[in-house]
């Protein structure tokens, strides 16, 4: 296997920092930029999956913002697979962020590519919450109340 370091200019913030405005209104130019992030992130995940890579740790802290660019990072737990190996992971997962983890991760059930899609959907929910002018506490409350496993996914 190979280890690769990609060194780029320091980023402005992670995606969580980009959204955290401490209750202040989100400026219109940042709202427009945030809209473009949906497609960029979906395309990035599609690219990974088409190239047989499962990220396994999609969350705001692993999505970086530099100017008008958004970058998916931290492939430390990523898994590559091919036609002989499966995209499924079983057993106890690596440490994870409960808010962005699928019910399968929380329950130690088999995880597949759909786990990345779920996690990206949770990131999108964060973004939609901001675009609709709602507070992050409401999103967290939603997850706490809608959990399928009895814990905060």
TrEMBL record:
<dbReference type="GO" id="GO:0044773">
    <property type="term" value="P:mitotic DNA damage checkpoint signaling"/>
</dbReference>
<dbReference type="GO" id="GO:0004674">
    <property type="term" value="F:protein serine/threonine kinase activity"/>
</dbReference>
<dbReference type="Pfam" id="PF00069">
    <property type="entry name" value="Pkinase"/>
</dbReference>
<dbReference type="GO" id="GO:0005634">
    <property type="term" value="C:nucleus"/>
</dbReference>
<dbReference type="InterPro" id="IPR011009">
    <property type="entry name" value="Kinase-like_dom_sf"/>
</dbReference>
<dbReference type="GO" id="GO:0005524">
    <property type="term" value="F:ATP binding"/>
</dbReference>
<feature type="domain" description="Protein kinase">
    <location>
        <begin position="1"/>
        <end position="153"/>
    </location>
</feature>
<dbReference type="InterPro" id="IPR000719">
    <property type="entry name" value="Prot_kinase_dom"/>
</dbReference>
<dbReference type="InterPro" id="IPR008271">
    <property type="entry name" value="Ser/Thr_kinase_AS"/>
</dbReference>
<keyword id="KW-0418">Kinase</keyword>
<protein>
    <submittedName>
        <fullName>Kinase-like protein</fullName>
    </submittedName>
</protein>
<keyword id="KW-0808">Transferase</keyword>
């Amino acid at each position: 296997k190979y280890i690769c370091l990609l060194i780029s200019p320091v980023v402005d913030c992670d995606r969580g920092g980009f959204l955290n405005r401490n209750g202040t209104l989100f400026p219109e130019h940042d709202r427009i930029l945030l809209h473009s992030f949906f497609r960029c992130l979906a395309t990035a995940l599609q690219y990974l999956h088409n190239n047989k890579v499962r990220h396994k740790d999609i969350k705001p802290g692993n999505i970086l913002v530099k100017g008008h660019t958004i970058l998916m990072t931290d492939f430390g737990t990523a898994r590559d697979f091919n036609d002989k190996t499966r995209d499924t992971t079983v057993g106890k997962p690596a440490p994870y962020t409960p808010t962005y983890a699928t019910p399968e991760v929380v329950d130690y059930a088999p995880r597949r590519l759909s786990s990345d899609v779920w996690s990206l959907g949770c990131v999108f929910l964060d973004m939609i919450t901001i675009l609709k002018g709602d507070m992050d506490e409401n999103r967290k409350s939603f997850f706490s109340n809608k959990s399928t496993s009895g814990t905060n996914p």
